[in-house]
Amino acid sequence: MSEYLFPPPPPAALPVSGQDARFPANRIFCVGRNYAAHAAEMGAEVDREAPFYFLKSAHAVRQSGATLPYPPGTRDLHHEIELVVAIGAPAFRIAPARAMAAVWGYGTGLDMTRRDLQARAKDKRHPWDLGKNFEGAAVFSALTPARDFTPARQRIRLEVNGALRQDAPISDMVWSIPELIADLSHYYHLAPGDLIMTGTPAGVGAVAEGDRLAGEVEGLEPVELTIGPAQ
C-alpha cells in the first residue's frame, strides 16, 4: 500500500437536495461572456463563433452558507451569479442532440472574481488564473437532480445585503447547455463530477467585508455567502 509524504487534501464534494449522498466535485469549467448584456457591461463582445472557457480548481469550492475571507491581493472583489450544470456520465465528442444525457443535475453558483487582477491580465494578454482561480472562488448550492429541473426561462438573481444586483432569464444565455457540453467534449473527456458554470448576466459588481450575498435560479436551491474580514 502506498504511503503519502503528507495527508492528501480531502475531496471536494457538494450536498444533494433531499439526499444524504454527496456529489464529488472534479473539474470546474467556467463559460465566459455567455450573456450579451454582461459582455457589454465589461466592454467586450460575445464571440458568436464559439464559446470560450476558463477553469477553477477543486480548492476553489465552497458550499452555500460559507464565510469567505476577503481574498488577498485584490481591492476589487466581484460577484457573478451562475446556473451550474453537474455532469454525471462520460461525454467525449458528443453531439448537442445527445449532450443532455450526460447531465446529472443543476445548481446555483457564485463565480467570485478578483476583478482588478483579471483586468490587469486582460491588458497584458495573460491568463486569468489569478483573477478567477483562488480559494473560495467557486461557491455552490446543494445540487438538484436533472429529473426535478428542466432549464427553460427561469430567472437567475442575486441580491447583496437585500438589494437586487443581477436579474435575467437563463434563456438569455448565448450558448445553450447542450451546445456547451458538446463543445467542451471536443477538448476534454468530460466525466462524472465535472461542473460547468454557464456564465453570468449583467449587474456584476464589487462586494466588501460584511456583505451578505443571496442568489437563486428559480426552481433550484439558493446559494448564500458572507464576505469576511481579510486574513
UniProtKB/TrEMBL annotation:
Q: Does the keyword Phosphoprotein apply?
A: no
One Pfam family hit: FAA_hydrolase
Q: Which InterPro entries match?
A: Fumarylacetoacetase-like_C, Fumarylacetoacetase_C_sf
List, in alphabetical order, the Gene Ontology terms for molecular function in this entry: acetylpyruvate hydrolase activity; metal ion binding
Q: In which domain of life is the source organism classified?
A: Bacteria
- Domain Fumarylacetoacetase-like C-terminal per the UniProt entry, residue ranges: 28-225
Which keywords, in A-to-Z order, does the entry hold?
Answer: Hydrolase, Metal-binding
Kindly provide the name given to this protein in its UniProt entry.
Fumarylacetoacetate hydrolase family protein
Q: What is the lineage of its organism?
A: Bacteria, Pseudomonadati, Pseudomonadota, Alphaproteobacteria, Rhodobacterales
